[in-house]
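[STRUCTURE TOKENS]
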Amino acid sequence: MTDRTAVVLFNLGGPDSLEAVEPFLFNLFSDPDIFKLPLGFITQKWFARLISRRRAPEASKGYEAMGGKSPIGEYTRAQADALSTALKDAGDYQVFVCMRYWHPMSDEVVAQLKDGGYNKVILLPLYPQYSTTTSGSSYNDFIRACSRAGYNPTLKFIEKWYNEPRYQDTIVEAIRREAATLPDTDPEKIEILFSAHGLPQKIVKRGDPYQQQIEATYEAVKTKLGWPHTTLCYQSRVGPLEWLRPYTEDVIKEKAAAGTKQMLVYPIAFVSDHIETLYELGVEYAEVAEENGIEHYRVVPALNTDPGLIQTLKDLVTAQNDFDD
């Protein structure tokens, strides 16, 4: 075994071709940490096959508009490369990417780590806020893969990091940079929506801390920014269940009806650009804004490889230096 420490970046993953859209969705809808069905495995796979086939044609339109694939793999690999470079002066680290619903997935990554003889592994989700459906799901899947492989390293799991000051400051800087490109840069004339990925209310009621941590992130960034017109809202709801409100699309319409002409949207739950930032926010909701009279609508890019984010990730990794606890 090696003394070198493996750093595993958890992320959602996304199809790398249009042919991969349906199997990607199948993996998503097969996740027991998101969809819990009676009879477990039997009904889960049937449900996943049915719903992925139904949703694949519509989902493919978004990926087709982005060049036939999700860019999240490229952005996450770039983040891993940037973090690897940043860690060179901090110790003996090797950074890996582990996707939840598309390659490289847990079994592949665990095989690499086992073959490499890593006995110390830091699990770092690229989700600042913890949810059982994101960081929790990735962690559970990784542990199952370790069990299947007979791999038993010492693990450190960084559960959440939304409250890191540098991360919050980097968001503020990103918003200010984008605001500077608007025709009128007066904060009084700019409406800012902080759009988070939604979550069914029933999951929150079961004790999932995601909503509380999203709200805490929003309040901290709002205070640091100090601008007058900000709203927290939620996107990407699916199906008939009641999800966290207010919905982003509804807020866009409400602000437009109130006379808003300039709007910035920041994807507060994401640090890697993908279909929900580039297509849902950047195309579909841009059309909603235009149709309702908002003249200047911009989506602030996710932080991706922003030096402030990479330094935050480095700080999180180097703080996990005692594997004897």
In short: The radius of gyration is 20 Å.
